[in-house]
Design brief:
The protein is of the alpha/beta class. The protein has two domains: about 190 residues, Medium-chain alcohol dehydrogenases, catalytic domain (Quinone Oxidoreductase, Chain A, domain 1), CATH 3.90.180; about 130 residues, 3-Layer(aba) Sandwich (Rossmann fold). The protein is built from eight helices and 18 strands. Strands 5, 6, 7, 10, 17 and 18 form a six-stranded mixed β-sheet that branches. A six-stranded parallel β-sheet has the order 13-12-11-14-15-16. The protein has a two-stranded antiparallel sheet with strand order 1-2. Helix 3 crosses helix 4. The protein is globular and about 65 Å long. The structure holds zinc ion (ZN) (2 copies). The site of one zinc ion has 8 residues, from loops.
Length: about 350
């Protein structure tokens, strides 16, 4: 790893009379090298509705991998990924009134929406035509400081410390939206890919009395044990048949071949939801797998209403989020571990 330029001593910027450093350490996306590069960047300034946070913890999501790997081309060079940001407010824009200096906030993937397109006008800001995504359109949380539009930030339940709250901000939230789209009351739920999102949704589904069937990579005994420890009624490889037909299935793994597999495991009238932002090509499959009023859909992004409902629920449930922490400067090790499927639960960076 190349060392970034030394921190410029003595330079400070003022926020509400508080002095912040003028520059910060960050890890930036380098899709050509499929890695993160260390850098020093200016501490972000707050726009009118923004808050600036000192990052306390930031989760690493599979979407970050897609950005780092160029599956989703970064919007500009030197982009700072990271959209599961837990931070402490250290600066406020002129019109930012929701949070106070010192308060803990969560910054999610949806960092802004236009408010006037056909989707925003019908309570579907997750599909906004001109969205702003954290760690993609604007710099995210793989850094010491981050700025965000406070109107899209969340108050986090106090029962989760910074590290354990981080994965709730995307893995939990997007899993929750998918779980709802699949019909949250379905008795038998299949989860394909048992990573950060599935390990949270498994607990929520089990707490709601659903029977959870967890499908991991073939032979991933540790992953299957992990799933059972979190309430899964059954766990096996995605090449294995579940002991019963599923009412709904959520596909978290970005593997297109799981779509026909999940449809074949789902009963008539059931729903299969693809949760990732990117998936390998779905192979062609026989129409009979879809017939019988099965529904195949994707989930895209989140709305603020999803966040409010989700954080209110997880504030009551006392979920056990499992995290593996890495120092911010070791972010490439976190990315590598996630790529290799070696993280039990979620990877979290600590600045
Ligand atoms: Zn819009
Ligand atoms: Zn994410």
């Amino acid at each position: 790893m190349t060392s970034p330029a030394p921190f410029p001593a003595g330079k400070r910027i003022a926020y509400h009379g508080r002095m912040l450093p003028a520059s910060m350490f960050a890890m930036t996306a380098d899709p050509i090298g499929r890695r993160l590069l260390p850098a020093h960047k200016p501490v972000p300034q707050a726009g009118d509705h923004d808050l600036v946070v000192r990052v306390l913890a930031c989760g690493v999501c599979r979407t970050d991998l897609h950005i780092i790997d160029g599956d989703l081309p970064p919007r500009r060079p030197g982009l700072v990924p990271g959209h599961e940001v837990v931070g402490q407010v250290v600066g406020l824009g002129a019109k930012a009134t929701r949070f106070a200096i010192g308060q803990r906030v969560g910054i999610p993937w949806l960092g802004g929406a236009c408010g006037c397109c056909a989707f925003c006008a019908t309570d579907r800001e997750n599909l906004c035509d001109q969205p702003v995504f954290t760690g993609y359109d604007r710099d995210g949380g793989f850094a010491e400081y981050a700025a965000a539009d406070e109107r899209y930030c969340f108050t986090l339940p106090e029962r989760y410390d910074d590290t354990h709250a981080a994965p709730l901000l995307c893995a939990g939230l997007i899993g929750f939206r998918a779980w709802h789209l699949a019909g949250a009351a379905m008795p038998r739920l299949g989860l394909y890919g048992f990573g950060a999102a599935a390990h949270i949704i498994c607990q929520i589904a089990a707490a709601h009395g659903q029977e959870v069937f967890a499908f991991t990579r073939a032979g991933d005994q540790a992953g299957q044990d992990f799933a059972r420890s979190l309430g899964a009624a059954w766990a096996g490889g995605s090449n294995e048949a579940a002991p019963a037909l599923l009412d709904a299935a959520l596909i978290f793994a970005p593997a297109g071949e799981l779509v026909p597999t999940a449809l074949a495991a789902t009963r008539k009238g059931g729903t299969v939801v693809c949760v990732g932002i990117h998936m390998s090509t779905i192979p062609s499959f026989d129409y009979r797998l879809l017939w019988g009023e099965r529904v195949l859909k994707s989930v895209a992004n989140l709305t603020r209403a999803d966040g409010d409902a989700f954080f209110s629920l997880v504030g009551e449930l006392a979920l056990q989020t499992h995290v593996q922490t890495f120092a911010l400067q070791d972010a490439n090790a976190a990315v590598q571990a996630l790529r290799a499927g070696k993280v039990n639960g979620a990877a979290v960076l600590l600045p």
